[in-house]
Amino acid sequence: MQCSLGRRRLSPHGGWASLHEDLVQLIGWRVLAAGDLLDYTRFRAVCSGWNAGAVSPRGRGLADTRFHPRRWMMFPEGHGLYPGHPDLGGYVRFVNLSSGDFVRVHLPLFRDSTDVAIDSTDGGLLLLLQKHDVAVRLVNPFTGDVADLPPLLPLLPLLEPQRGRRLSCISEYHTFLELSIFRTGVCAAVNVTAAGEIIVMLAIDRRHRVAYATVGDRQWCLSAWKLPRLSARTMALQGKLLYAAAVNAADVYIYQIDLLQQQDGLSLPPPKMIAKCPLVGKIGSAHLVEGASELMLVGFPDASREHLEVYRVADLASGKVVPVTNIGEHAIFLEERGVCVSANKGFPSVLGNTVICNHRQTRQVDTCNPWERLSSCSRYDQFDLDSGTWSPALDADILHRDRAPARPYMLGHHILTCCNRYYWNTGLIFCSPMISR
């Protein structure tokens, strides 16, 4: 019996493009699990057969958590270009905090500036507030899926009775201004039930309350309890809300807020303490950060603010906390919220194993006003976790009293703007003075 040792010729109708649909979908699911929604989109774009064989994410971008983006943030352009600006043509850029990739997405909801972004959650989902009726929308920017949530206006009298009584006699524009507590001070967590119901929790930090609603509800439900004075801004992780608060002067406790599904509906039990860290409990001295799907707490161990410590919550269930002395190629930016980026992949101007934050110090200031020459300036330095030393993180002070840092801005300026929701809809970079330039 003869056998050929030569190469077997492929059938002209064979090859990768002719894979069976079940196999194409199996490969697609693995691409999605190991990578990102955009990797899955690129996989489907290889050929018409793969596009037909793999499920389209459109229409599933909110109800199916597999199609939620991962570690994407809306990128602030600066130069007065806010989302919805006519010069952007309806496009918004996003940056991936792990890979450094940039994508430009067409989002017509920002057209004519009728919607403003009030939060980015669950890896890149946007929470938008409509100006004309203050309704809330949850958007997956990469699939175009939109879900409507109840208006926030009915919550205002419950949170601020004095201001709430004025709403019936002021204009639509001033009503929108009255909702400033929602535009700059909320944190959203998105949860999807087994039945496909989309539930959103809102931590309203400035009023120490939490609200929740399911897509399709007519109104928000408000927590019966209040949040304590927070040491760190509330953050969302895996559909839950997390916050840090000081119980005593030497420890910071991490609490978890999670909805409880009961036979008669949803309820919001009081927060549950899950971990304790030996950090100074002063407000603003500690920050919760998500890094590589892990929860970290970063802060100062004493009032001198000369040394930073990082703790990793190894297990949310047991509350096990592990001190971390090396975060590898990652860098952590701390401002209103904390952001962890992969420095070596897409952020060449950022040093790995560092923490960039506001490192206040009293020093001589170059200003025309003699009363302001000696003052405490906001200076953003980077702390090297390996050597324990501080060094300048940016070319100039973030907030200077009488001038803005020189352009072009560093990538660090843009990342710090990602950390501060106040600037998202202004077109300004965090280092800019609060005037239109």
Automatic annotation (TrEMBL):
This is KIB1-4 beta-propeller domain-containing protein. PANTHER family: DUF295 DOMAIN-CONTAINING PROTEIN, F-BOX DOMAIN CONTAINING PROTEIN-LIKE-RELATED. InterPro entries: KIB1-4_b-propeller. It holds the Pfam family Beta-prop_KIB1-4. Residues 94-357 form the KIB1-4 beta-propeller domain.
